[in-house]
């Protein structure tokens, strides 16, 4: 596979960049933190979508070195921002962990080492895990999630509602945040029934002591609806696209 070979080279040549998408506190309208999203800017291929190369990197195992780089780079950047912008509460950074990384044997050691090396405030790092990563073996997954939590970091469940997680297990996962998948948020415009679904997901999360991030907010109307439903956080093009560091700092300098 040519893409796989090119990916291997790209990791060596450091052709990746992290973009950061703001996550907004819906009570204060302030930036509460960011989600790191990887981008591949290839001299040969140009801008390659992660929707294309993340699946290939997962199948090939290249997500392990790539994922390590993403974690290291994200932690390093957040430590810099904590020095540069002294927000109270401090900015959070969410970093996606792929299913393959979740079953990596030395995951805990690897994460711990990066946290120590960068000296980042551990409370401010949140790993995003999908339902599919944890439903293979529930007891094993819970043990692993507990170990990640014991490192001092936070956890969120990404794309909630699209996977297979059984509601009967959800309360056993030591998850801090539920991210309501964009498909539900977008469909709120279509009918009151879809809004009721989002409302129910938010209530479910709150009853389990989780806070909620609504993803994929593209319209102002969605913001008001979500505020009325007591959703804590929002993310989406309405607020900002994912941005490279310099553009994000411009945004912060304009809005803080
Ligand atoms: O950023 P964008 O919407 O184009 O991302 C497309 C897909 O790639 C999404 O499913 C997203 O979760 C995934 N993705 C983007 N960045 C990362 C990353 O840093 N790590 C992992 N594992 N997946 C990512
Ligand atoms: O799978 P995950 O939720 O991590 O992926 C997030 C992806 O969603 C990113 O690739 C990001 O670029 C994309 N995204 C973020 N906000 C919006 C939005 O408002 N609309 C759409 N269509 N995509 C978004
Ligand atoms: Mn995510
Ligand atoms: Na998501």
TrEMBL record:
The entry's keywords: Membrane, Transmembrane, Transmembrane helix
Domain EAL as annotated: residue spans: 1-256
Protein name: Diguanylate cyclase/phosphodiesterase
Organism (species): Limnospira platensis NIES-46
Residues of the full protein shown: 312 to 567 of 570
């Amino acid at each position: 596979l040519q893409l796989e070979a090119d990916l291997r080279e790209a990791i060596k040549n450091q052709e990746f960049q992290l973009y950061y998408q703001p996550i907004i506190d819906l009570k204060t309208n302030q930036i509460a933190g960011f989600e790191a999203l990887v981008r591949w800017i290839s001299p040969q291929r140009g801008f390659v979508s992660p929707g294309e190369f993340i699946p290939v990197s997962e199948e090939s195992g290249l997500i392990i070195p790539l994922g390590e780089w993403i974690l290291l780079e994200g932690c390093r950047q957040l430590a810099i921002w904590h020095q540069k912008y002294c927000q109270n509460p401090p900015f959070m950074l969410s970093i996606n962990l792929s299913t393959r990384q979740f079953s990596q044997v030395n995951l805990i050691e690897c994460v711990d080492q990066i946290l120590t090396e960068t000296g980042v405030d551990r409370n401010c790092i949140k790993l995003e895990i999908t339902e599919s990563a944890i439903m293979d073996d529930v007891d094993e997954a819970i043990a692993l999630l507990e170990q990640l939590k014991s490192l001092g970091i936070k956890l969120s469940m990404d794309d909630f509602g699209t996977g297979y997680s059984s509601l009967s297990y959800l309360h056993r996962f030591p998850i801090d945040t539920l991210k309501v998948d964009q498909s539900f948020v977008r469909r709120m415009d279509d009918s009151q029934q879809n809004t009721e679904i989002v409302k129910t997901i938010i209530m479910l999360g709150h009853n389990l002591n989780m806070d909620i991030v609504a993803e994929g907010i593209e319209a102002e109307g969605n913001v008001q609806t979500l505020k009325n439903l007591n959703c804590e956080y929002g993310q989406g093009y309405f607020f900002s696209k994912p941005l490279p560091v310099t553009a994000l700092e411009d945004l912060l300098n304009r809005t803080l």
